[in-house]
Each structure stands twice: as structure tokens, then as C-alpha cells.
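Project outcomes to date are best conveyed with an example. Our students and postdoctoral researchers have been running inverse folding experiments weekly, and each run begins with a structure described purely in C-alpha cells. The record below, which covers 181 residues, was selected by the lab manager from last quarter's runs and is presented without edits.
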């Protein structure tokens, strides 16, 4: 066989192998093009997701800042309410002490026969009566329960106690008691 025929056969076989590789390469390139389109779609979706996540983080930060401001405001209100509650408790204690003192004074002033009638109403009347309308007290008042005598408090010392113990709430209570009679 001539060499030229042998070379032609080898070239033909190599061309067939090359064509086979070209077909296979064309299929792979087609897959790559199709995958490239999918990859581009995936990249676009990823970019959109990243942008939405950034927007959500911004909203989350602004919400957290707003919540922090509300917490600071609430803490201030809590402190104010605690202060007012403390002052209210102190005022209630002073009012209770004033009522107790006025009841004690009333019990000392009321004879034993009228003791059942006197009660809290007489104590309230004694507490709210102006200083100039009170009757002068004797130097000693008989204690009905103990049967002992002790010096009576002076009108001036009672007025000083009354003025120092009165708060706005106490004044309003006394005003309400006066208007009820």
C-alpha cells in the first residue's frame, strides 16, 4: 500500500475522532451556556436577596433605636412613678398620724357617757375646726380609759403640728370634710 493511502486513512481516522470530540465539546458548551444563564439568574437573585437583607437590617436597626428610646422614656416614667409613690406613702403616713392624733385628742376631750357617739366624726370635726373656734382647754384632761390625768396640749402646739403635717392631699381631705357638714 502506498504510503499516501495509509496517511489518508490515518488523517480520516483522526478527522473522525476530531469530529467526535467537536460534537462532545459542542454539547458541553451548550450545557455551559445553559448553566451560564442559570448562573446569571442565580447571581441576580442573590443580589436581590442581599439588597432585601440590607434593607431589613436598616429597618431592624431603626426599630431597635426607637425601642431603646422608648425604654429610656419608660425608665424615666418608672423612676417618676416610684418617686411619686414614695411621696404618696409618706403623705398617707403623715395623714394617718394626724388622724390618729386627732382621735386621741377627741377621746381625751369627750366624756365617757358620750364616748360611743363621739367616734371618728368627732375626731374629724376636732381636726378641721379652726383654731379660733375651739374652746379653751383646761390645764388637765381626764383620760377616760386609764382614769389618769395629764397636761392638755396647748392650742399653739396643736396648730404647729397640724400645719407641719398637712400636705396638699391632707388639705383637700380636710376641705372635703368641712364641706360635708
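After processing, the design step wrote out the following sequence:
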Amino acid at each position: 500500500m502506498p504510503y499516501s493511502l495509509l496517511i489518508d486513512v490515518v488523517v480520516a481516522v483522526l478527522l473522525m475522532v476530531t469530529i467526535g470530540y467537536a460534537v462532545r465539546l459542542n454539547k458541553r458548551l451548550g450545557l455551559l451556556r445553559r448553566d451560564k444563564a442559570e448562573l446569571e439568574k442565580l447571581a441576580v437573585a442573590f443580589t436581590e436577596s442581599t439588597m432585601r437583607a440590607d434593607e431589613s437590617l436598616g429597618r431592624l436597626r431603626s426599630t431597635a433605636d426607637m425601642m431603646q428610646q422608648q425604654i429610656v422614656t419608660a425608665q424615666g416614667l418608672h423612676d417618676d412613678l416610684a418617686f411619686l409613690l414614695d411621696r404618696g406613702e409618706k403623705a398617707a403616713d403623715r395623714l394617718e398620724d394626724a388622724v390618729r392624733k386627732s382621735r386621741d385628742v377627741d377621746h381625751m376631750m369627750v366624756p365617757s357617757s358620750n364616748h360611743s357617739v363621739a367616734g371618728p366624726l368627732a375626731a374629724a370635726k376636732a381636726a378641721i375646726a379652726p383654731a379660733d373656734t375651739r374652746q379653751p382647754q383646761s390645764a388637765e384632761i381626764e383620760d377616760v380609759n386609764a382614769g389618769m390625768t395629764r397636761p392638755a396640749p396647748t392650742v399653739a402646739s396643736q396648730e404647729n403640728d397640724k400645719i407641719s403635717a398637712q400636705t396638699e392631699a391632707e388639705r383637700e381631705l380636710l376641705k372635703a370634710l368641712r364641706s360635708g357638714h
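The longest strand covers residues 140-142. Residues 3-179 form one domain. The training component of this project remains on track.
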